[in-house]
Design a protein that fits this description.
The structure is a single chain. The chain is mainly beta. It is about 10% helix and about 30% strand. The chain has a six-stranded antiparallel barrel with strand order 5-6-11-10-7-12. Strands 1-14-15-16-13 form a five-stranded mixed beta sheet, covered by helices on one side. It starts with a strand and ends in a 10-residue tail after the last helix.
Length: about 290
């Protein structure tokens, strides 16, 4: 079967865990070799804004493909915010507790385009990737000022990091701010969702993974992985392709190979990826040559 590579990154920094090409953004390395500081400039006619991340995301989503399309859909996968030393909170006065909901302000770093090249309309995966809507009526990452908001549930925290459930951010994503979720202010009774309230995402009815493959994956990783697979991680434009087509996605240092027939997803192989393998996939959009399968 034909394999489809899920990746679009390029030019990785030496030894970097993730790679990205970001116009008009100045990157300075951090200890875990992703982003520690962004300097974002606008045109001469506008003021210059310096964006200083307070930390970065560590998540099981090693590439942009397989990342949940919305926060909260994969509630069993744990991610965490690793704070930069200058922004590490004082635990005694943090004011955030386990099970609290918070809003995270972060940046799309895998889909950055020149600010002058953004489109006023996009084709959301929720509409099959074939119909266009206004970019401001969507959560598309292809937008001016590639910033995003996600509401997540706090799991735990210490002096250097905060772990949470329900994230939809790729590993290495820079974080700019945290806000409390306020039920009375942020939950609007009777609010209209527009076109989004009229469409539902077709999820998988059955996930089949042979026992010998499941045992390769740690128990702590399986619940989140099964939720990701149930959400149908294929790009929307491939959902009507040949059922013999084989897809792969990288999740928590594993590469999962699968096929889809109607609403049944079948896992056909699981491979443990080394840091070098992951860097290669992100740079080339393909698996290493020595991973050939019958």
């Amino acid at each position: 079967p034909k394999r489809i590579a899920y990746c679009s990154c390029s030019n990785p920094p030496a030894g970097a865990k993730s790679s990205m090409s970001i116009p008009s953004v100045h990157l300075v390395s951090r200890p875990c070799d992703a982003i520690s500081r962004l300097e974002y400039g606008t045109s001469d006619e506008r003021p210059v804004m310096h964006l200083q991340p307070i930390g970065h995301i560590e998540s099981p989503y090693l590439t942009k493909f397989g990342v949940p399309r919305q926060p909260g859909l994969v509630s069993r996968a744990s991610s965490r915010i690793v704070f930069d030393s200058a922004h590490a909170p004082d635990i005694g006065s943090m004011g955030i507790e386990p099970d609290d909901s918070i809003i995270v302000l972060w940046m799309f770093t895998h889909n950055i385009k020149d600010a002058s090249a953004w489109s006023k309309t996009v084709r959301p995966p929720l509409l099959g990737g074939t119909k266009r809507v206004g970019v401001f009526a969507s959560r598309s990452s292809f937008r001016p000022n590639a910033l995003a908001l996600s509401c997540v549930q706090v799991r735990a925290y210490d002096h250097a990091s905060l772990s949470f459930f329900g994230g939809d951010m790729a590993d290495g994503t820079p974080v700019f701010a945290l806000y409390p979720y306020l039920k009375n202010e942020h939950c609007v009774s009777g609010a209209s969702e527009g076109w989004r309230g009229e469409v539902t995402w077709p999820t998988m009815e059955q996930i089949i993974m042979p026992r010998k493959l499941e045992q390769v994956i740690p128990v702590s990783t399986r619940a989140g992985l099964y939720q990701v697979l149930r959400q149908d991680p294929r790009p929307a434009y491939t959902r009507d392709t040949d059922e013999n087509r084989m897809f792969w996605l990288a999740y928590d240092d594993f590469v999962i190979w699968f096929t889809v027939q109607e609403r049944c997803l079948r896992v056909v192989d699981v491979t443990k990826a080394s840091p070098q393998d992951i860097a290669y996939m992100r740079e080339t959009g393909n698996v290493p040559d020595d991973w050939a399968r019958a």
